[in-house]
Amino acid sequence: MPQPADPNPHRLSTEDAFLELLTDTLESMERPARGPFLEKFLKSIAHVDINEATSLDIWDQVLARKRELSENVGKKVALQAALVDVLASADLLRLPILMEYEELRKLQINATTDPLTSLYNRRFFDDYFEKELNRSIRYSHRLALVVFDLHRFKEVNDRYGHPQGDILLQMAATTLRKSMRTSDYAFRIGGDEFALLLPQSDPEQATAMSRRLRAAYAATQLHPAPVRLQAPKSNLLLLRWDRPPRHL
Residue 91: which region, alpha, beta or left (left: phi > 0; alpha: psi -120 to 50)? Predict the structure, then answer.
């Protein structure tokens, strides 16, 4: 009998988030289009020359092995375990991969994070928000989403240059990280647009977070340019599933 989904899952690691996003992306592609990507991906982690057809076959084996392992242990098994098992069984996993783990980790981080701010990127936001939304509907949990941009950011770029604008964006990201809870997720979803996903947050908590962010940005000054971080009134969407969604 299938096990019920955990209504309070652990926070995804960077590796799991990357592989989950990779699996979903590949499933949405036609099989011929998967081959070139999988050839490069598997070659980068196995350090062997394999063609597209072999890469596709190995990936199918990985997914089948993941299902098999999950059924055997009665719970979801990470794709990483199945990937290592299949590569090792095919004699494609060599010792250097263990020594070059940091390179793979960088690849995984690059797939889910914004390079300038190190926040999660727009692609991961689209994927993860949909999953959190479906989870909140299924378990009748509250979910809050705060979306905002920086006030008059274009003027900073025009007057002080894009390098100074980049510093401003990095400061905005740092302020956001300092203000959020460990259970929250922060994203850069556009040029100067940011989003904060607050799982299981009631209206008071979400509103307090928005006010705290606004105050933190107002108190942050950019040097050497005499510019302060300013966020206009944020768009705050509060969701709870025992009543219709509403905006504040």
Answer: left
In eight-state DSSP terms, residue 205 is H
Contact 17, 189 (CB under 8 A): no
Residue 187 lies inside a defined structural domain of this protein = yes
Number of domain units in the chain: 2
Q: From first to last of its 248 residues, what are the pLDDT tens digits of the chain? A: 444 444 444 555 666 777 777 788 888 777 777 888 888 888 777 777 788 888 889 999 989 988 888 787 777 777 888 888 888 888 776 654 444 455 556 656 777 889 899 999 998 898 888 888 888 888 888 888 888 888 778 888 888 888 888 988 998 899 899 988 888 999 999 999 999 999 888 888 888 888 888 888 877 765 545 555 555 455 555 544 444 444 43
Angle between helices 122-139 and 14-27 (to 10 degrees): 90
Q: Which domain holds residue 32?
A: 14-112
Q: Report the catalytic residues.
A: 192
DSSP secondary-structure letter at 140?
T
Q: Which of 84, 112, 140 is the last residue of a domain?
A: 112
The whole-angstrom separation of Cα 193 and Cα 90 is 46
Whether 103 and 186 map to the same domain: the answer is no
Boundary-marking domain end, from 87, 112, 137 = 112
Whether pTM exceeds 0.90: no
CA–CA separation, 192 and 137 (whole Å): 30
Same domain for 169 and 220, yes or no, is: yes
Based on the fold, state whether residues 47 and 74 are members of the same structural domain: yes
